[in-house]
From TrEMBL:
Cofactors required: Mg(2+)
PROSITE patterns: POLYPRENYL_SYNTHASE_2
Organism per entry: Phytohabitans aurantiacus
PANTHER family documented for this protein: ALL TRANS-POLYPRENYL-DIPHOSPHATE SYNTHASE PDSS1, GERANYLGERANYL PYROPHOSPHATE SYNTHASE
Family: Belongs to the FPP/GGPP synthase family.
Full protein name: Geranylgeranyl pyrophosphate synthase
Keyword field: Magnesium, Metal-binding, Transferase
Amino acid sequence: MDGVLAAGGLTSIGVDFIDPALEASVLQTLAEVEGELRTGVESADPFVTEAARHLVEAGGKRFRPLLVALGAHFGDPRAPLVVPAAVVMELTHLATLYHDDVMDEAPVRRGAPSANSRWTNSVAILVGDYLFARAADIAADLGTEAVRLQARTFARLVHGQIAETVGPRAGDDPVVHYLDVISEKTGSLIATSARFGGMFGRAEQVHIEALAGYGETIGVAFQLSDDLLDIASDALQSGKTPGTDLREGVPTLPVLYALAADDADAASVRLREILSAGPVTDDDLHAEALGLLRESPALKRARETVRTYAEDARARLAPLPDNSARRAMESLCDFIADRTG
């Protein structure tokens, strides 16, 4: 979804707003964030401004600002620092995307040429660094605690990326390693987004902690559900060609479960044989592996894992008041649990 989210856009990413007033308030916050993002990346150098705006203008779900906006509804959603806090989170996220595209050698991001393919890897890395700096600059206006939290979140992101790059060490459980990577790379920033919403909406401390716990867990659940969609859905539902991760050799949760299984039936043995050879680039083998994965106990187990995380996220909302914002966040748990079957 490009640019500012429209009223139906929030529902399409899994949040169901029963309360029109809440939806209007969240949309207002997101519209303000959108304007501040464009202002926030401006530079005295027109080239830097163009490159920094590249992904801002490509749009996106704005999931992290959305959680800031929802978290603020447990206090004062119109408190003056809510929008800057959301901008800090989205700029930090966008900075990681510039770096990710270099590491993944990605040619496209959000339907547009990636920064590294449009310019160079060096430019993309430096623009990512610039966005981190801009996020830190804005965070300084939020206070010392916000700067510290953003820095610690960034450290977790980097730890997660290093762990993913290095891979599990000898004796490590690949599944545990993979879940830890997702917690660090994805869950950490979503957790801080929900925390910032509570903090800068001036919510009670117990509510802020509950929001952070919810954010971390729902972030992991959302990433895991994307892994399943890559295998189980058609291109229209997932937005990309099914089995892309499989073709690129990305070891997602269903693949890791399949490789770790000791099932002796012919289908499981054949699936392990294909997957253990690395990236499945041959079209016939790819189609065979995708079919076997869709019918495998590994996919069923991965679905159960997603549901476990989604229900854990719901449980972490228990300390929060039973208001429309909490119900909207609970609807996201239902969406994630249901979207993968």
